[in-house]
Design a protein that fits this description.
CATH class of the largest domain: Alpha Beta
Number of domains: 2
Strand order of the largest sheet: 1-3-2-4-5-6-12
Helix content: 25-40%
Order of helices and strands: EEHEHEHEEHEHEHEHEHEHEEHHH
Number of strands: 13
CATH topology of the largest domain: Rossmann fold
């Protein structure tokens, strides 16, 4: 494992996002700048428009376009189109793209194709592969989402009036389990430090694109479990969590990946911003810009390795805006800030899904149950 040292170079990157609706087939965006000679990047993504994970990556690609890279964004659709994913990647390879960037959804496909395309570089992200699994022309970016989730877990516990908070996810997988594990760790540590006994419940909607199903799930948790703080890790489905909080006074939401307060305040539904206390940030777009800055500078040390980015690299965290400061008590904000410094320095180690090694699913489920 290695750190991506130049992540801080891109703190001022553009935040404008492309908000295309999800489609049933591949769609593309982005212009050509072949004269620059910087290279051709294909960004493979399920659907844009989630105001979260996918859009954060697209923001990074927009910055790279502006710097002279030729970037094509390919939307493959949701999991129902999984049998076409390899074809989409083969299409961009046939079109001469020199770099293929895709999330954990496409990692296995890219790793399979990489040896047959030795002149192409493949960039996987949001997965945690051992180096010996990676072809020599492939790198993997892994984000310590457990660290950022720990901090918003502390906040959820400190803000709850009912003693029950929820973390609601789209589709279960190890990366999502890492969000959940960190969140629960933050709640439990807050309890231990403050003499509280806040419980955590968890549920999944099994989709990244079903906000209606998510809204129903959250309303059930409000009604049946008396939950009042909700952390969504659900892509486009998370919009339904915000809707449920809007409709139920006394509840709050926590966004994910991007600054979802900022996303909604400038959208057609700005009222949704009023329930988002903060968002756990995972700077996907920043990491892309930093990586391609390194490539442009001649660094090739990332190939065949997994890069790990966390609080120490300013790659995860939480939104500390005026709305957050107005609604979260100063003492709680100070506890979060202190924990952030300790995690970044290595003084405090956050529990991770990847700590569950003997029987990960069983150990993870037991940990979730222990917080309920």
């Amino acid at each position: 494992m290695k750190k991506l040292a130049s992540i801080l170079l891109v703190a001022a990157m553009a935040l404008s996002l492309v908000a295309c609706g999800g489609g049933d087939s591949s769609t593309t965006s982005g212009g050509s700048s072949a004269a620059s000679g910087k290279g051709k990047i294909a960004y493979i993504v399920g659907n844009l428009g989630d105001k979260s994970f996918s859009d954060s990556g697209e923001a990074g690609m927009k910055t790279l376009r502006g710097e002279g890279w030729e970037v094509k964004t390919v939307e493959t659709g949701d999991a129902s189109k999984a049998d076409k994913y390899e074809d989409y990647i083969l299409d961009v390879l046939d079109q001469g793209y020199e770099y293929v960037v895709g999330s954990s959804t496409y990692m296995e496909i890219m790793a399979k194709l990489a040896p047959d395309y030795p002149d192409v570089k493949f960039v996987g992200f949001d997965d945690n592969w051992e180096d010996d699994r990676l072809p020599e022309n492939m790198t993997c970016i892994f984000y310590a989402q457990n660290e950022g989730s720990y901090l918003v877990g502390m906040m959820a516990a400190g803000m709850s009036k009912t003693g029950t908070v929820a973390v609601d996810v789209g589709v279960e997988n190890p990366v999502i389990g890492d969000f959940v594990t960190g969140f629960i760790n933050g709640v439990l540590d807050y309890n231990a430090a403050n003499g509280t006994s806040v419980k955590v419940i968890k549920a999944a909607v099994d989709s990244w694109t079903e906000p209606t199903k998510m809204k129903t799930l959250v309303e059930d948790q409000i009604r049946n479990n008396n939950a009042d703080i909700f952390y969504q890790v659900a892509g486009g489905s998370g919009d339904g969590l915000f809707e449920a909080c809007m409709a139920n006074e006394g509840t709050w939401a926590i966004g994910v990946d991007s600054d979802q307060y900022a996303q909604y305040i400038d959208s057609e539904t700005p009222e949704k911003a009023d329930v988002i206390l903060t968002s756990m940030l995972k700077e996907v777009g920043n990491s892309f810009v930093s990586l391609f800055h390194d490539i442009e500078g001649g660094d090739d040390s990332m190939w065949g390795t997994t890069i790990t980015l966390g609080l120490a690299e300013d790659s995860v965290g939480y939104v500390d805006n005026d709305f957050f400061k107005e609604n979260v008590p100063e003492d709680l904000r100070n506890q979060m800030a202190e924990a952030k410094e300790k995690i970044a320095s290595g003084e405090l180690e956050v529990k991770s899904y990847y700590d569950f090694t003997e029987n990960p699913a069983e150990e993870y489920n037991a940990y979730v149950a222990s917080a309920g």
